From TrEMBL:
Highest rank taxon of the organism: Bacteria
HTH gntR-type domain ranges (all copies): 1-37
SMART domains: FCD (SM00895)
GO molecular function, one term: DNA binding
Gene3D superfamilies: GntR ligand-binding domain-like, Winged helix-like DNA-binding domain superfamily/Winged helix DNA-binding domain
Name by which UniProt lists this protein: GntR family transcriptional regulator
Record keywords: DNA-binding, Transcription, Transcription regulation
Pfam families: FCD, GntR
Species: Caballeronia humi
Keyword hit for Metal-binding: no
PANTHER family: GNTR FAMILY REGULATORY PROTEIN, TRANSCRIPTIONAL REGULATOR, GNTR FAMILY
Amino acid sequence: MERFGVSRTVLREALRTLTSKGLIGSRPKVGTRVRPKSAWNLLDADVLDWYSRVAPPLQFAIKLQEMREMIEPYAAALAAANHEDATLAMLTEAHRAMVEAQNVDEWVRADLRFHLGVLAACSNELLIPLGTLIERTLEGQLRLNAKRAEVYNASLAEHTAVFDAIVARDETAARRAMADLLGVTRGRIEG
C-alpha cells in the first residue's frame, strides 16, 4: 500500500482479481502465495497477454500456433458451411483490406480481422470469444510473421485460397487451405 500509494480497499480488490485469475492463493495463517503456472487461468485475456510478455518468445509462439492449428482449419470448414451474409461481408472486407495493404501495419490489422472473421463466420458462439481471447497475442504473432517474410504480404495467396473456399462453401477445401496457411506460418516461426 505504501509502495504504490493505494488504499486497503484497492489492494483487496487487486488481490481478489489476481485470485480470480488463478495467479495467487490466499489462506489464513499461510498468507498470500503465487500459485504454480499450471493453476493460472491462461484462457483469461489479461493473463494470456501478461504471460505472452514474459514467456520465452519462441516457445510461446509455438504454443499459440499449436492451438491455432487445432482450431482454425475446422473453423474455416465451419465458416464455409455456415457463413451468413453479414459474416461473409466482414470476411470479404478483411480480405479486400489485405489485398490493398500498403505496409506491415495495414496488413497485420487486415490479417487479424480476417482470422477473427473466419471465427465469426462459423456461426458457433463458443468460437467467437476465442478470437477475442487471443486477439492481442495473435496480433503480435501476425506482426512477427509479416516481418519475417520476404515481403509483408507473402501469404496473400494462401489467405485468398481460404477466402475463396469459404465463399464457395467448400468445407474440405477451406479446411485444407487453412491448414496450408498455418503450415506457412509455422515455417516462419520455426525458421
